[in-house]
Design a protein that fits this description.
- The chain is of the alpha+beta class.
- It has three domains: 105 residues, no CATH class; 45 residues, SH3 type barrels, CATH 2.30.30; 116 residues, Alpha-Beta Plaits, CATH 3.30.70.
- Helix content is 54%, strand content 14%.
- It has 13 helices and nine strands.
- α1 runs antiparallel to α2 and α4 packs antiparallel against α5.
Length: 352
């Protein structure tokens, strides 16, 4: 490990901003800086000779301006990566604003160095070039606007869990820049998307929900019941409900347990009161167990609730437990889930 690399790692890991900046400069020094300088120098000289022939002073000023701006941008990008690891959102925002300021500084310095205002033809040429460059880099301009909007309104932070359905992105934000957002998806892949996509496309931020700062995580399931099994309950059914095996009366009002009532009605009431007493189901903002529009396949029962277990694994476990109970309790009321007949069903009928 070289001297510059050791100094870089030591300073970049510091809690003090001054040492972090110095560490970023050392990283710049440790990389092939001279190769970049060899490329930047002839470009600056050529541009100076075109805009200001016969004078070498503007060339020196332009070269110095380019070096300063490039150093600022490189340092800010290095610090952005460091702040992303530390989840320092304020530091990331400041770094990206400094990058914008550096680009503005370059434009102002360029105008002052070549005194473009005093030369009409030069000003027109630069204006045309600027318009062309604006059209070429319009996506980056949109990205800057989206970055400012998202950061100003605290809609996106490092570590947030976001989902962009149209782009197939579902994971944790790892890095945010003026133009891109890098995420670690739950399928262990990494995605980099334009930050402007979060402004133009629908995206969901699920961080508050996952941290338990909302009522819970939404569970919405539908079950299609075969209407052939919907019928009024009999006295025999009521006697069976009273057995300790089912414990149905605990979750149903006494005046509802009477013969002639539809078994689907009793099942819906039972399921609602059972969910009201389930420890992981929140009573807010809403708990709905109701019938939806009838389909050719049968009656659709919708269960809409919020579970207090917001962790992915815990949520799926509790949701599965609830669904298994719903399927099991249907049989207590003499109901069946609709299932389209398969080849096995037809073969069994023919065999009989």
């Amino acid at each position: 490990m070289g001297l510059f690399e050791k100094a870089y790692k030591k300073n970049i890991a510091s809690d003090k901003l001054g040492r972090q900046i110095w560490g970023a400069l050392l990283q710049w020094r440790a990389k092939p800086f001279w190769a970049f300088l060899l490329l930047l120098t002839p470009l600056s000289i050529g541009l100076s000779l075109i805009l200001s022939p016969g004078s070498f002073i503007p060339c020196l000023f332009l070269l110095g301006l380019n070096l300063i701006v490039c150093l600022i941008i490189k340092v800010c990008r290095t610090l952005t990566s460091t702040f992303s690891l530390n989840r320092n959102d304020n530091g990331i925002t400041v770094c990206q604003i400094v990058i914008l300021a550096a680009l503005g500084l370059w434009i102002i310095g360029f105008v002052l160095i070549f005194d473009i205002r005093s030369n009409g033809r030069m000003a027109a040429a630069v204006g045309i070039i600027g318009a062309v460059l604006g059209w070429i880099f319009q996506d980056r301009v949109k990205g800057v606007a989206a970055f400012i909007h998202l950061r100003r309104h605290h809609l996106l932070n490092i570590g947030d869990w976001i989902r962009v359905p149209k782009l197939g992105v579902d994971g944790e934000v790892k890095k945010v820049t003026l133009t891109t957002v890098t995420l670690y998806n739950w399928d262990t892949t990494t995605s980099t998307i334009p930050i402007s996509a979060l402004s133009s496309e629908h995206f969901m931020n699920l961080q508050h929900m996952s941290e338990g700062k909302t009522y819970g995580r939404q569970m919405q399931k539908s079950f299609i019941l075969d209407t052939e099994w919907i019928r009024p309950v009999t006295e025999e059914d009521l006697s069976r409900f009273q057995s300790e095996e089912y414990d149905i009366p605990r979750y149903l009002p006494e005046d509802e347990l009477r013969s002639g009532v539809l078994n689907a009605h009793l099942f819906r009431l039972y399921l609602y009161h059972w969910l009201m007493n389930y420890p992981c189901v929140s009573h807010q903002p809403r708990l709905i167990v109701g019938w939806m529009e009838q389909k050719d396949s049968g009656m659709t029962l919708q269960v809409y609730a919020f579970l207090t277990e917001t962790n992915w694994a815990a949520f799926e476990w509790q949701q599965s437990q609830i669904m298994e109970h719903i399927i099991t309790s249907m049989e207590w009321f003499g109901l069946r889930i609709y299932q389209r007949p398969s080849a096995y069903d037809f073969n069994r009928e023919e065999a009989q």
